[in-house]
Each structure stands twice: as structure tokens, then as C-alpha cells.
Amino acid sequence: MTYVLFALGFILLIKGADWLVDGASAIGRKFRVPEMIIGLTIVSFGTSLPELLVTTMASLEGKAELGVSNILGSNIANILIILGLAAIIRPLPIARDTYLIDIPISMFAVMLLGFLANSHFITDSTALEITRIDGGILLFFFFCFMVYILAEARAKPAEADPQMAAGQMPMAALKIGVGILMLYFGGEWVVDGASLIATRAGLSEAFIGLTIVAVGTSLPELVTSAVAAYKGNVSIAVGNAIGSNIFNVLWILGFTAMVSPIPFSPASNLDIMMVLMASASLIVAVIIGKYPRISRTEGALFIVVYAAYVFYLVKTSGL
């Protein structure tokens, strides 16, 4: 039955992403909210639900290594795989605010995580963990991020869609709700199936979290961004990936740590560095390119880098 749900999960992911993008885009046009803001908020929240589920459950079940690895692995996949694939489908223009503000915010979030998790360097404690106080700090900065997003939406309204009738609003909201549910269950079923296969193969929790579960919980972002890029909603594709990275660290790890302190493995510091390198590569791609965008060539390069990263994990895991 797990394998049947594994296959069905992919179908739910694809259709759920389609509905979420359509509904979010429609509501955004109606209320003059820029597509980038929609991607950073509604779409990011919806596609981050699998990460929230996996990380919280892993923490409560005493599998913290899987939960933290899932978040860091998902953030790496969001940039290298998701934006890489989306750029191959359609080159992704990167707005000035995105590479000057949004991407640096995502990098600040993961650097803050690294500092809090390694705070034993400046305290008497010898334990590495993300405490409830650390979780509160992460949630505080998440609140600050949301205030900034709302201010941006009010300061730079998009053009309204005069053709959208008021009666279409309930259908758009329904598409968002049903799309999020389909992404949630689709992601959960795919992750369960992949985890079962990996566990039977004797793989470690950290390896499973950084690769199979990370990519599995990133499938909503992957499919949503790919669909958005295919439909020409490139701002939603970029905003979804960057927003999900911010949500994953500040909201999901913050919330999970408030529920139960999360032990942190020193090995995860290397993964934090990988997240920072992947994020910085977006800014580099904008700087060195003729236009502020991620080209198809750069998108393919992102995927090659991710493949090399997974190869390194396989070699160091002793497989």
C-alpha cells in the first residue's frame, strides 16, 4: 500500500501545484499583490507544509537529526534543483529587490541558525542544540520578515485584474485550499515511500534527511515552481523557492524548537555552509550575467552542482 500511495503522491503533487499557482495568481491580481509577494507568502507557506510535518514529527519522535537535515537539505534542493529546473524551462529574471533583499534575508536566516545552534562557543554549555529560546528568536525574525513583506505589498501594488469578477474569488480560494491539501498529502506519501525504501537499504537518518526526504518534501516547491515557470509566472517560481527557504528556517525550525528543543549535530555545519554557497550562487549568477536572471545554462550548472553534492554524501556515508 505504501508503494501505491508513493505513486499516487506524485499525481497529487502535480495537480495540487497547478491549482495552487492558478488560485494564488488570481487572488494576487485581484488585490493588486505582486506575484513575487504571492510566491514569498501564500505559495511558500503551502509548499512548506511537508517540511513542517516531517521536522515536527522527527523532533517529537526523537529523530532530530532527520528533522534538521531535512530542513537544510530542502533549502539546498530549493535553490540548486528547483530554481535550476525552473530556469531550464524558462530563464528566470531576478528582480533587484530579490537579490539585494530577499536572498540576503534567506542567507541571514541560515547564518542565524548556525550561530544559535553553535552558541556553546560563547556559553558554558557543551551541548549542541536549538533551544526553546533559540526557537523564539527565529520566530521573532520570521515575524519581522512578514511585516516587511506586508509593507512591500502596500508600497508596490500590482495592477488589478478588471476581468476577474467577484464571484470567481471563492473558486480561486478553493483552488488554493485544495491545492495545499493535495501538496500536503502528496508530499507525505512520497516521503513515506522513499523513507521506507531507504531504511530497508540501511541508509542513515542524516543521509535520508539530506537527500531522499529533503528532495521529497521539496517536491511541492519543485512542481509548483516548474508549473509556474511553464505558465510564465516566473516571479512566483523564484519567490516560492526563496520564500520557502526563509519559512523553513525561521518558521518551521523556530516552531519545532518551541515545541521541543532540537539536538544539533556538528556535521550539519557543513550543510549550513552548502546552503550559504547555493544562496550566494544566485547573486553571483545575477552579477556575472548580461541580464539580471538565471539562464538555462546556469540552471543546468545548479543541477550539476547538486548532483556532485549528493555524490559527496554517498561517498562519505560509506555506501
Helix/strand layout:
Blueprint (H helix, E strand, L loop, with lengths): L1 H29 L4 H13 L1 H12 L3 H26 L2 E2 L2 H22 L11 E2 L1 H24 L13 H32 L4 H13 L1 H12 L3 H26 L2 E2 L4 H21 L4 E2 L1 H21 L3
Antiparallel strand pairs: 1-4, 2-3
Helix pairs in contact: 1-2, 1-7, 1-9, 2-9, 2-10, 3-4, 3-7, 3-10, 4-8, 4-9, 4-10, 4-11, 4-12, 5-6, 5-10, 5-11, 6-10, 7-8, 9-10
From the coordinates shown, what is the CATH architecture?
Answer: Up-down Bundle
Q: What is the CATH superfamily label?
A: NCX, central ion-binding region
Strand fraction: under 5%
Distance linking N and C termini: 28 Å
Q: Tell me the number of structural domains.
A: 1
User: Which oligomeric form is depicted?
Assistant: single chain
Summary of the model, kept short:
With 319 residues, the chain is mainly alpha-helical.
Write up this protein.
It is built from twelve helices and four strands, in the order H-H-H-H-E-H-E-H-H-H-H-H-E-H-E-H. With 319 residues, it is mainly alpha-helical. Helix 1 crosses helix 9 and helix 5 runs antiparallel to helix 11. 79% of the residues lie in helices and 3% in strands. The model has no long low-confidence stretch (mean pLDDT 78). Strands 1-4 form a two-stranded antiparallel sheet. The protein has a two-stranded antiparallel ribbon with strand order 2-3. It has one domain: NCX, central ion-binding region (A middle domain of Talin 1, Up-down Bundle).
